[in-house]
Specification:
The complex is a heterodimer.
Chain A: E1 2-4, H1 6-20, E2 24-28, H2 44-48, E3 53-55, H3 60-72, E4 76-80, H4 91-98, H5 101-104, E5 114-119, H6 134-138, E6 144-146, H7 151-163, E7 168-173, E8 182-184, E9 197-200, E10 205-209, H8 214-228, E11 232-236, E12 239-241, H9 245-255, E13 258-265, H10 270-282, E14 291-295, H11 306-309, H12 313-325
Parallel strand pairs in A: 2-3, 2-4, 4-5, 5-7, 6-7, 10-11, 10-13, 13-14
Antiparallel strand pairs in A: 1-8, 6-12, 9-11
Helix pairs in contact in A: 1-7, 3-4, 8-12, 9-10
Chain B: E1 13-15, H1 34-59, H2 73-80, E2 88-90, H3 96-102, H4 107-113, E3 128-129, H5 138-152, E4 158-163, H6 170-182, E5 186-192, E6 195-196, E7 199-200, H7 201-204, H8 213-216, E8 220-225, H9 229-244, E9 250-255, H10 274-281, H11 285-295, H12 301-323, H13 343-359
Parallel strand pairs in B: 1-8, 2-3, 2-4, 4-5, 5-9, 8-9
Antiparallel strand pairs in B: 6-7
Helix pairs in contact in B: 1-2, 1-3, 1-11, 1-12, 2-3, 2-9, 4-12, 5-6
The chains are: A alpha/beta, B alpha/beta.
Chain lengths: 326, 368
Amino acid sequence: MASMNMVTALNMALDDALRTDEAVVVLGQDVGQDEGVFRVTADLLKRYGEKRVIDTPLAEAAIVGGAVGLALYGLKPVAEMQFSGFSYQAFHQIEQHVARFRNRTQSRFSMPMVIRMPYGGGIRALEHHSESREAYFAHTPGLQMVIPSTPRNARALLLESIRHPDPVIFFEPKATYRAFKEEVPEEPETMPLGKAQVVREGSNITLIAYGAMMRPTLEAADDLSESAGVSVEVIDLLTVSPLDTETITNSVAKTGRAVVVHEGPRTCGIGAEVVARIVEKSLLYLEAPVRRVTGFDVQFPYFARERAFLPGADRISQAAREVLAF
Amino acid sequence: MPRKSITTKQKIEYLSILDSSGEVDEALDPKLDADRSLYLYRLILLARRLDERCIALQRQGRIGTYGPCRGQEAAHCAASFVMEAEDWVVHAYREPGSFYHRGWPLETVLMFWGGYEEGCRPPEGVNDTPIAVPIASQALHAMGIAWGMKLRGDHRAVLCYCGDGGTSEGDFHEAMNFAGAYHLPVIFLVQNNHWAISFPRERQTASETIAQKAIAYGFDGLQLDGNDPLSVYVGTKEAVDKAKASGGPSLIEAVTYRMTVHTTADDPTKYRSAEEVEPWEKLDPIIRYQKYLKKRSILDQKLIDEIEADVIAEVAGAVERYEALGTPDPLDAFPNNYAQLPAELVEQREEFKAALEREGWTSGEGRG
């Protein structure tokens, strides 16, 4: 075990993958010599050489479309989009080809690849560097949309994503990159995709979140139990598509109350799907309407306004209190 | 400090070996032996007859919308003819002869245009990508496959088709740029058929040729007569040999003409005249190649008739096999989306299954 932040843990997963599978290649803008703008690819070029860790010209569609070709040829590309806000230049390749090649060719070809990208607000960055648009990808059949929340689960989920036979969009919560450290085992460790985790057990209310929103959600849970004696269950979705319906609905069947939290816009967001599944499967257990604490349906503000905009523990606690008082 | 000229490479070549009367440039003639010549002739003819049959089938409602290749048979048949089994061919959607040559059962072409996903499944061992509908997006896949070859040290090549319209797409340029920057073994073959649905080649780009776009990306471009099988063969062969010898990518502009509709949903009388089309009839690849092969005493009328009958029978067989397909099982829409279906999809499939039973759907009878 060693204590590390998420950047180091992600780097460890990439190192595990490159070391144990010669088909794995890491590619993207500035991932080699510069070691990634957030240093997630630190030392990898030195260790594995330029045939495994590849600096590319600046073109998102070519990075993803090229990765499609690499995967067709039998490699396992791990492509980096420097920020999720620039992945739209590759969106057509993701939607038209990455997500469809398996079905199109009736499984003659699969797309074993990971497209990593930092997402979310909170680091005082420019426009296009702060949004959370996981719903676009979650809406696309054929993809898996994974969002870790801590160093340990980031390392395990990234390694599992690289080993997975199907394409994974891997959102990295950039606000969490260096926010805290966690003990991570030295031996490679994986976690299954499509499984949510109950990170805190409780009986009065379920808080459901993922990615960077896990921290304010856990803070809200602390506040609720310390100041109001509420027994809070907290679920970390980890994979937002395919969604782990069972873990969510089992929890709500127990607590009867739920709040869903995410940074992305509310309408047609992940929260909408979570609420729909709760209503479909656990309606009769509900003691109160489910609430969503999310980004509003407006463009993510420039950074002078972002601290106020991002959902925080207070907003989550308040919503939970209202649900509890219903 | 001074303002001065920078000399960049400007010249591209144009290649024409066989003229419209069947006269050949002896020095450039690849002189393919009789077997290979007849194979190529038959392949081109088969593409033509299959194409004609597909249009008829569409008109009769037996397949869906179809994108024909009439006039462009030489441009794709003679190019794919160059590729070895370990090479890759990345298709657009006007290359039926290429699929056949590469080992796809002929009926897969009908299956694609008839609405079956199975028409996009390359047979085991065939290194091809299927029909690509979004314009030029496949150019990046070709580049990526070539990138894989280079990373693995394999001396192989990728042939990638696209059209003149596709050269306006960003993906085409990103593919060309990466291919040049990494010096990849890929040949971009643009079938310049002069029309992107209703939009003419002259308005598609201010470049005098499409081939010259290669210069900007640091590799060679070649324009050739795309209705001449010999020019297409020689130009492609040179590019492939060069790619396999680590000489990097090439761009080939095969100048041809879309003799008929863009697809069966299109009406070209809205945007071009019969007078424009007419001169291209004289440049028909089949007529020219026949004349040439007769002069070389490889082909005579008896053999022409035999090959014709043989091709017609083969196309008829494919149509028969296609028509014998029953209504596919709608539940087959599920299993190929993921290696393993997630729980939610297992549930949705059950819901779909129950609905199909309630609605009285049966598969295996007639076509869908």
